[in-house]
From TrEMBL:
Residues spanning the signal sequence: 1-20
Comp. bias regions, Polar residues: 47-57
Keyword Signal: yes
Biased composition (Pro residues): 24-36
Full protein name: Lipoprotein
Coiled coil: none
Native organism: Pseudomonas hefeiensis
Keywords: Signal
Length: 135
């Protein structure tokens, strides 16, 4: 590497590193209030504030999908935020999250397919929301 290229590179690195170590400016003291120059006025009689009016807004529809978990492939389902899983619409007590299907049938079982084969599991092998829902 030539001497000019080395000096240019060194200058560039030093210049950019100086930008990285600058401290943010310190906040200044708040400005004092401006005194009024006119005559002082008294506020008028106060009235009790009325109750705020809340419009009748319809309840928001529940989301069909989760922002964190992908829906099951090829199946009709909806996201249940309370349970933290997708609920399969065409299979009773069958749920999905993170490439695993869970089924409740007098005990928990899990599978990689909604049609099985199913292997038994304990409550520790099930997402927390499901474990609280079915006991």
């Amino acid at each position: 590497m030539t001497a000019i290229a080395r000096i240019t590179l060194l200058t560039l690195v030093l210049g950019l590193s100086a930008c990285a170590v600058q401290r943010p400016p310190q906040p200044s003291a708040p400005l004092p209030p401006i005194p009024s120059s006119g005559p002082a006025t008294k506020p008028g009689p106060s009235t009790a504030p009325s109750k705020p009016v809340t419009p009748n807004t319809p309840a928001r529809p529940l989301p069909r999908t989760s922002a964190s978990f992908a829906p099951p492939p090829g199946g009709n389902s909806h996201w249940d935020a309370k349970l933290g899983v997708y609920v399969l619409d065409n299979h009773t007590n069958t749920f999905y999250r993170q490439r695993t299907y869970y089924r409740w049938s007098n005990g928990w079982s899990r599978s990689v397919s909604p049609n099985g084969p199913w292997e038994e599991t304990t409550i520790e092998g099930v997402p927390a929301g499901l474990g609280r829902q079915f006991r």
